Each structure stands twice: as structure tokens, then as C-alpha cells.
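Cross-posted from the bioinformatics board.
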Amino acid sequence: MTLPAGSPDMPARRGRPRNQSSSAAILTATLDLVAEVGIAGLTMDSVAVRAGVGKATIYRRWSSKEALLLDAWMSCVNASPTPDTGSLRSDVNQMFLRDDHPLSDSALQRVFPQMVAAAKVNPDVTQAYHAFLAERRHPIRTVLTRAIARGELDRDTDVELVADLLIAPLMYRWLVTDGVVDHQIISRVIDTVLAGLHATAPVPH
Amino acid sequence: MTLPAGSPDMPARRGRPRNQSSSAAILTATLDLVAEVGIAGLTMDSVAVRAGVGKATIYRRWSSKEALLLDAWMSCVNASPTPDTGSLRSDVNQMFLRDDHPLSDSALQRVFPQMVAAAKVNPDVTQAYHAFLAERRHPIRTVLTRAIARGELDRDTDVELVADLLIAPLMYRWLVTDGVVDHQIISRVIDTVLAGLHATAPVPH
DNA sequence: AGTTTACGATACTGAACGGTTTCGTATCGA
DNA sequence: TCGATACGAAACCGTTCAGTATCGTAAACT
């Protein structure tokens, strides 16, 4: 036991080497199944079948179901690029109107709620979850900080709060209400929030 | 089997009557335990122990674990009163700054994510969940509709979108980031959103 | 008193599942 | 060729748990 989970492809110098593609297949199968049946419904047998591997192969690389789940989740992070166009408005537009934006990833849409729920209940998951969140929020934080430096936003702007004002309505529809999240909605959220920021703390132009 | 779940105190005219308080104790125990250990960790035995009843008593009133969960969730709804002060601003303030606001219910804070996650995966739960949501959103919808009627908001305002703009940042902190949700944050969210609405579609005063 | 139903407690059953082991085979270095 | 390791498949083990049944008791009706 106590394999170094997190680096499942490392060990073994003699003998048959591990099939590198199996790890990816296992992680993908795990995420797909979590999206379909939730964590409670996820079984190691189903992961093995879906990934086309034997259970032994899974346990050779991860010490437990929980370790596998944590790895699978962290593999979702794939931070998106941070735009730097010189204007807050177009930076934000670029971030949210990308077609490959996370919000258009329907698997993540189903996995994410499972993460949130598990994080509320399991301390190990809580930690991984917060790392995930911090990673995901990094780009918007950078964009806002730069906007402050440029004088586009008030110097004492609460970056976290503004990030929430922009992200939350989309996240909320995406996660809680299953509402529409299309370009029009996104644009109107951005319009309203930026207008509100300028109205309550006018730019010094 | 096939007891009429949802009305667990009805039957039996002869013989010893059912203990009315047991149903409430069972529902409360269910919600508490879901908050503590999640749905996956919830066992009927633990519900029975926590509620101080026998398992038979639970199954006499609900046909299955799932039926019990659905009933327990729907019992959270307890719609809050809808303020009608004559002004959008103070209506919204009253709704969100109440000390008994749902957002200050820490049990619900842990149960709700479990509902969201389950709703993504189980069609029966999906239905109950959307009924729950509609019930919860009713007050804000009414407040916004009245504000439109008074001319405080543009006549073609998207009520659902504005509701999201107000609710989502709080909900997002409450549900996703575990961030602070105090009166100051709430006020600043309301300030910014209302300012943004008036800036993009000025009131005809 | 006698009947009927509910009660908490406890034992039981049957299935699902996490995790391990075994087996025959494949693929590497030496 | 040989030892070491990996592979998929499948059997296996031990536990957990939903749901049922039983028991002795309590509370209602007639």
C-alpha cells in the first residue's frame, strides 16, 4: 500500500513497463462516470470496465478509490490562458466568451457539483477542492489586478468581490439552476457589473 | 409497500395511533445527518438512532431511503415572507439582510450542495430540486416584478437575470467558495447590481 | 377483556462493493 | 533464455447496508 499516488506512472525499471495510456484512460473513465452516476454510484469495477483495464491495474497505480478520485479531479484544472489586451472590458470578454470556456464543458458541469458536495463532507476533498478553486480563479484575479494598476478600477477595489460578481451569475446558472448560459447572457452580466462598478466608483478619466 | 409517502401521518384508525412527533424527528435527523456525512454516508440505521426511533417506524412511514430523502428536502422549503415596502432597494435589503435569512442556516448550507449534486444524477431528485428552487425564488421574482410595475426598473427587464445577479454572488460564496457572507458584502453586491441596472437602463425619473 | 395497530430493539437476509489474490499471458532488461 | 514486472480477467473475501421479520410492550378502539 501507500503507493505514491499522484505520480502513477513512475516506478519499475525492470520488467514490462506500465502502459502510459492506461492512467489517462482510468482518469477519464473516472470523471465520465462521476458525471453520470455521481460519487456514490461510482464503483471501481465500473471504472475498470469503462477504461478497458483490470482492477489490479488501477490499484497498482492508486492506493484507493479516494486517491483516484482526488487525482481525477485535479486533472480537470488545466488553467486557461490569461488575456492581456490592455482593457478590462476586452480581457473579461475574452475570458468568458471563449468557446472552449470551462462553462461549456458539459462533463465538468456534472462533475463540479459532486466535488462541491464531497468537499463539504470530506476534509481531504476540501483541501483538493480549494486548490482547484484557487487555480481556476487565478486568471480573473490577474485581469482585475492589472485593471486596477491601469486605473480602470478604483484602487481599493475588492478583487475577490468583483471576481464573484462576474463569475457567480454564470456559475450559478450553470451549477444551480441549469439555466441558459449563452453569449447574450454573459454579455449582459458583464455589462451590468462593469457599469455598476463605474457608477459606484467612477473612473478618474 | 407503496405507502403514500409524503403523508406519513395519515393512516390507521383503529389501534394505537402513530406518534406524530416521530415524523418530524426522523426528517430532522435525516437533514442533520446529510449535512454531516452527505447522502452517500447516510444510513437508515443512523437516522433511526439519531431520531430515537426504530427502523420499522421509518419504513412504516416511508417506502424507501429515497422517498425519505425527498420528503426531508422538500421540508426545507419554508418560503420566507415577501417584503413590500414600496421601494426596490428596501425590499431587496429586507430580503437579504434578514438575520433569519436562509443563507445564515448552516445546516442548509451543507445540505444544499448535496441536493444539487444528487439532482444532477437522479431524475427523481431533479424534479424535487427544481420545485424547491422555484419556491425559493418566488419572493425575489415578486419583488422585481413589482419594481417593474412601479417604473423603478425598465419595462423589458429580464427578471430572472436580475434575480441571478443579486442572488448568485451570495449563493456562490455560500455554496462554492465558503467565503464570507456578511452584511457588508451583501450591501456591496446590492449596491453594485442596482447601480449597474440603472446605469444601463436609467429609471425614467 | 379483547382486538388492533404502533412502538423500540434486535436479529436476519441478500446484494453491492472495496480491495486482494490468482492465473495465464505479454513485454521489458540482462 | 531467464527473471522481473505489467497486463486483463475473474474469483474471492470481508464489510456495509437497505430492507424485512420477530418480539415483547404500549396505547388506542369496542
